[in-house]
Amino acid sequence: MNLDIFVPAVPDLFLNLSQRFGLLLAGGFAIMTLAPFERLNMGRDRPLWSTLAVTALFGVFGILGTYTGNYVFHSYANLRAMGVITAGLFGGPAVGIGAGLIAGGHRYLIDVGGFSALPCALATFLEGTAAGLLARRFPGKSLDWGVAMALGIVGETVHMGLVLALSRPFSEAVELVEVIGAPMIVINAMGAAIFVKALGLQRRLRELRDSTEARRILSIASKTVAHLRGGLTPQSARATAGIILAETGVAAVAVTGVSAILAHVGAGEDHHKSGEHWRTKATRLALESGRALFLHDPESIGCAKQGCPLREAIVVPLRKGPEIRGCLKLYGTKDHPLDQPLFELAKGLAALFSTQLELEDIGIANQLLAHAEIRRLQAQINPHFLFNSLNTIASFCRTAPGQARELLLDLARYMRRNLDSSRGLVRLSEEMDQVRSYLAIEQARFGERIRSEIDLEPGCEQWLVPPLLIQPLVENSVRHGLQGREEGGMVRVAARRENGHLLVEVRDDGLGMPREVVDVILSPRGLESMTEGVGARNSNQRLIQLFGPEYGLRVDSAPGRGSRITFRVPAAAPAPAPVAGAVSVSP
């Protein structure tokens, strides 16, 4: 034994390692909270550069753990295990193995052929590897301080065992372990536990912050979606800007088009006025570059007005497909500064608003598609119904000319309304007149076999509904439900208001429909034949196209017990004025 080597007492070694541990922990945690490193651990699918950065960072921690200032018996009392165990639990196998190789390789290279170089380097590599594999096997325990402490105790115990097994002379290895064994096992285990606990708290705080921002974005989006549904207009922009101002507490919010200010609320609205050309060069830069900007001084904002209170700005382009249609701008003042979370919030809101603007075109396309379906439905109904009606009227011409005349008037009223679908929606009263005309002709054909009842709640007559919607359902009941029964049956149409909607019901006591027919009616597939669309399925698809999937038909039917079809229509704009020259039909 070389007695010239200074051998610290075990209590002194505990104290020295504890001091170094505190410095390493504080420095490591401070680095991991910096913005460039804060999100390096986001899941297994992290990019390669992120994995390499985390590995290098923890490898450096491991190297620093070697230099504790405690050189004992030609070896080092060290804190490498604290860094590499945390690396494996934090980043998984790749990071744990990589950090173990870096820190262990450094330990071997600074003392090649030394007394304990090989076992110390090997132990460091094994600790990082074991921690990484454990994190993969039990991901829910990856940042558990108890697991980290257990790994530290076991890993450093194995470390001491490798020193005894591989270091020579054996007597010096025993003396070395007697001095450094307990301090290294305890301090490394405690260090790994506290380091992992701190990183776990950091992750939870970040997740809490992110969830708070997500809730704020969703709250703003839910309040603004109704305003943006009709596009980017001065009215929708002002309502949107007011909501964002109230939710975020920034100094001012503005929404611009490509050439003018659509709305500006808050500080500076005395000279940033709606309808005027935007005043800042920052808006021009965002529109031209298509990039989100975070500007920290009035010169970058570029407002020409002397004394403008706006000192900071976040400017994010609003897109509609590939085109830039305007900007969302958040402004800060001396008393209301902006920060990075607000920048991320603005980018998220701009993405949501851009999606909403694209949905505007989809809504218009669905409206056009629904109108095209009406035209196609007319082309199918007219010949089918016309031939049967004319045959019925012809049979009454000799025997009951008066009734034939009334039926011709019913047919004329029916055809006139059938041809007039220039309006997107019609009054319920007009749609029910169409139903009455249809039923009058069918009852003339089949006599007492076809009975009907119409029950409208008072006040529903002015509700706006899609045209040619209820009559095909009634025709479906008559043709497929009642005509197949020798004794016929009853078809009943009812409408009432319910929870802000119009609820319409078409019920019959006819043959009913098997489950497979109901499935066809409610199928989202396109119509497969020209006759398939004359009835319930066409009505179902138009309701979905106009109002959304939740407004489709509800069908309750089974063979032998009739059918009940219901649907809802949401409240719409006020009913249009009657069209000049339209035929007036009495109930």
What does this structure look like?
With 587 residues, the protein is of the alpha+beta class. The protein folds into three domains: 10-209, Arp2/3 complex 21 kDa subunit ARPC3; 229-338, GAF domain (Beta-Lactamase, 2-Layer Sandwich); 363-570, Histidine kinase-like ATPase, C-terminal domain (Heat Shock Protein 90). The chain is 57% helix and 13% strand. It has a five-stranded antiparallel β-sheet, sandwiched between helices.
User: Distance N terminus to C terminus?
Assistant: 117 Å
CATH homologous superfamily grouping of the largest domain: Histidine kinase-like ATPase, C-terminal domain
Shape: elongated
Structural class: alpha+beta
Rg from alpha-carbon coordinates: 39 Å
- Major sheet description: 5 strands, antiparallel
From the coordinates shown, what is the CATH architecture of the largest domain? Answer: 2-Layer Sandwich
Total domain modules:
3
DSSP summary: helix tally: 17
Uncertain segments: 1-6, 526-534, 573-587
How do the strands of the widest beta sheet line up side by side? 4-3-7-6-5
What fold name stands as the CATH topology of the largest domain?
A: Heat Shock Protein 90
Quick one: how many beta strands? 14
| Secondary structure: helix percent | 55-70%
